[in-house]
Amino acid sequence: MAAWWRAVRGVLLDISGVLYDSGGDGGGTPIAGSAEAVRRIKASGLKLRFCTNETQATRGKFVEKLQGLGFDISVAEVTAPAPAACRILKERGLRPHLLVHNDLVPEFAELDKANPNCVVIGDAAENFTYANLNEAFRVLIGMEKPVLISLGRGRYYKETDGLKLDVGAYMKALEYACDVEAEVVGKPAKPFFESALAEMGVPPQQAVMIGDDIVNDVGGAQQCGMRAVQVRTGKYRPCDENHPHVKPDAYVNNLAEAVDILLQQL
């Protein structure tokens, strides 16, 4: 494969499946070597941004959990869908009906949610009941021009006890039922990656994305002009290496290995 590490000035890291596997009593388990790998990137002088589709908690609570797991990370370093969606809702005067995780609701506290004129869907986990999905369906189907905003479109993710359905599966159900195409805020949407690059101050040609999702991390980053590396942790499966459309610039066993390769070239 091509020398993906050449002329890299900025690194975008996915979080779940790259830094840690979520779930369990402690909120998750760090992947071996990942916390040290983050520290090494920061010490190297490379620009670093965490780019996540996490929507089961506010950005602040999510970062607090990661800090408790030993990661050097701050809220200001994280690009996440909910804050980006709030900016869009405010700009367009949209009042959301929320189908999201209870712990994410505070992100939308400043928005008017009376008489909703759009639906926002995130990884609602146990809130993905028939009743809640049907309520979101009724809001959408009652609009002349339905507006559905999805916080990512992942198919599944990995927790400590196995794979879990992600928001994309439920997004597709509402799309089909209401004959509407969702607006995706989060990976793999190009504006989401462009926002992370702008926050780093690095052009796409000088950045690399490291993630476990062949479509949303790797494919999304490449469509934005970045190089992208897939780790064999998290939701990675061997069949990813035969994906018909997306070909990573490299595969590595884990984040620590990627950082070893990258820093050897500086």
Describe this protein's structure.
The structure is a single chain. This protein has 8 helices and 14 strands. The protein is an alpha/beta fold. A 6-stranded parallel beta sheet has the order 5-4-1-12-13-14. It has a 4-stranded parallel beta sheet with strand order 6-7-8-11, covered by helices on one side. Helix 1 runs parallel beside helix 8 and helix 4 (130-141) packs across helix 5. The chain is globular. The model has no long low-confidence stretch (mean pLDDT 96).
Q: What is the CA-CA span between the terminal residues?
A: 19 Å
What are the segments in which pLDDT stays under 50 over at least 5 consecutive residues?
Answer: none
Structural class: alpha/beta
Order of helices and strands: EEEHEHEHEEHEEEHEHEHEEH
> What is the radius of gyration?
18 Å
Overall number of strands: 14
- Helix coverage percent: 25-40%
Number of DSSP helical runs = 8
Keywords:
alpha/beta; globular; 266 residues; six-stranded parallel sheet; 33% helix; 8 helices; 14 strands
